[in-house]
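thread: overnight batch results

M.L. [08:02]
morning all. the overnight job finished for the chain we discussed friday. pasting input first so we're all looking at the same thing
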Amino acid sequence: MMALSVYAFLSVLLIAGQIYQVLKDTGYRVTLEAATSYSKSISDVREYYSSQVVPRASETGMTISHDFRNLDNAIPLPAILTIEIGEISSSQRGGGDFRFFSSYPFPWRKSGGVQNDIEQAVLTTCKLQVLVVR
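M.L. [08:03]
and the structure it wrote out:
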């Protein structure tokens, strides 16, 4: 009788472990898909801004700068726009984190370059710049 109880207990633990693993994997996949979708959307906005807004603004004599807030008649660089949209979105949504880094970070941004080996590996794979949503 004792052996049967132990067997039943171990079986329940094994089943619970399997259920936990399936739920964990599903949660991971859903989170990854959401982050990928968000990243793609931000990239699409940046590409549109770079190809449609920046050239037209430049043709009218506007300045495109990282320091756009302190300049008259200026708009942000595409990377600055991306960073600011990500920061606004992160602060309003809580629980998420946004990081945009590049092989050529702005010298005035301490967090713009690679921060660890994982980011370096991602940057090497993706080339010039990476948008990360965690």
